[in-house]
Amino acid sequence: MAYEDLTTWTEEDDDGEIVVNSTSVTMSAMNHDSDCQLYLDGGADIFIDTLHHYFELTVGSQQATIIPSDYWYISNSAKGYSESTSQLSLYISGTSVNGFDLGVSDYASFSDQTEASLLDYATKYYIEIVRTAAPLITVYIRTGSHTGVLKATLSGEDGGNSFRYLHLVTEH
Fold this sequence. Notes:
Distance between the termini: 32 Å
Strand content: over 45%
Number of helices: 0
């Protein structure tokens, strides 16, 4: 599996809350009054029908998590969330002392929102996001490896649109 060189992506981070190297992004406790994001401008209609993305997600603690924070996001807006454009997001939707919830939503109507509840802190989760036929997107959450034990499956619809931007971090 080839890795994206994340240092070639666009980083906007006024408060220095994200650290980007060629294969990973590390986030500190992101504040809602901050404006930070990392995204790829793929050009018009780059994500048309199919996409297949793999990444790893580890949430250190409840104190390190601001709700909601988007960790994977496709959109037609370089500035992240916009009610005027179609988009689909994978985000942390809630936390407790026992764990965190991971959700997927279209952000336009929240009608396709699904969540995986009480995932464990400090556990590396292997995320696979698949769009084989627009508008359906399926998210597989595994432990151990990308072919490891299936912890949860989430799904959502993105309106069947093509997209220009892929965001790995968005907080506004």
